[in-house]
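Worked example 2:
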Amino acid sequence: MTNHKARKILLVTLEPVAKSMAGPAIRCLELGKQLGKEFSVTIASPVKVAEADALDLQQDPLASQIKLLAGVSKTALYNEAAISDVLVIQSNVLRPFPKLATMGKYLVVDLYDPYLFTVLVQYKDKGKSGLASYRLMHNILESHMVACDFSMCASERQRDYWLGRFCGIGRLTPDIYAFDHSLRKLIDLVPFGLQDKPPIKTGPGIKGVVAGISESDKVILWGGGIWDWFDPLTVIWAIDKIKDKIPNVRLYFMGVKSPNPKVVVMDMANKAMELSQKLGLTGKYVFFEEGWTPYDKRVNCLLDADVAISAHFDLPETRFSFRTRMLDYLWAGLPVLTTCGDDLSTLIDQRGAGVSLPYEDVDAMVTGMEKILLDENFQTNARAASSKLAEEFTWQQVSEKLVAYCRNPYHLPPFSKVTMPSIIERAQAVYARGGKDLIIKRSKEVISDIFR
């Protein structure tokens, strides 16, 4: 039997790996735990972490063997990469660490977040600076896609998108197709995942803790941040309309400021807080956690909620997203209110785990809130369906394709930029298809192309 423990895997994220983490860092850590069952694993991030926010991996049996490098320097990261066999990087890592693509290692690129769509939203009003940011991120993404030996995304819909991009940049060549007709060796599914253990409350959450929210209140939970591609405004307007009919309704936003110090509070977060204040809801019906709920404390908020919510706009970002916060909702067995358009909202609606709503429709949002909060039978059934759906997304299950690659890694045929064939190459191709007669027939066309 192969000794996989002798194989070293290095995972790299640009997000802080700490007690307070956003999706990319959580994904890096959880995939590292699964890989650690068979391999020697190191997780690295260039972001320094304060001692009070540092993770104690010894408290988690799955993570206790993982080596964590927080605040790693470029030199230290390259040294770690040099003694590793497989590098697993997120799709912005080559910007500060370009040498990782040229070290001859097996390179896995994580494309679970098609972030160019969020860049379009975030910089839509920034003029030339927004265009410059988009062009920069576009080229960074392309550098990852041409360098990878294997890549992973979150859904079949995303995979269709990425295959189109791979084709557009010339990565899908006859050599790649000959290597694997299915193209699964180029890109396959590794969705975001969930712990396989049921959620257990470990301490205080929301009810009876947050001033203005009592044990008897009905809490609608907005998990995660308030980004520009989300629509908290429709939700807040709906709370304003429903508060008289359901006076103990409470909307709780679990985080406003990203744990990544480089990510500023976005315009939509400010708009949400301003609208809530304007309507007189803040501190009475709507509540904002201005910081970020630590990863291991989020379970206490989830288990204190009665309903979970996610709302977004009719954007390309929505269509190709894979909402990580909604997986947490399923893990906690919560009924989910969500606007339509993405894969998870479709699944939730089909399986009866909640209600999928039209975009920016306040009345539909109100109706959905009433249905879940007032119809106990529907709420019970939705909770059961939510928990059942969560069973399909454990980290052990979703990481299988990555683990399989690391067991038997390979290099893809090298990338070379697609260029127009020379006159000799064209003549050879024509001859191979139809011999001398076809050469004579096509000669006029070929010569005209030369002098065009």
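The chain has 17 helices and 13 strands. The chain has a mean pLDDT of 92.
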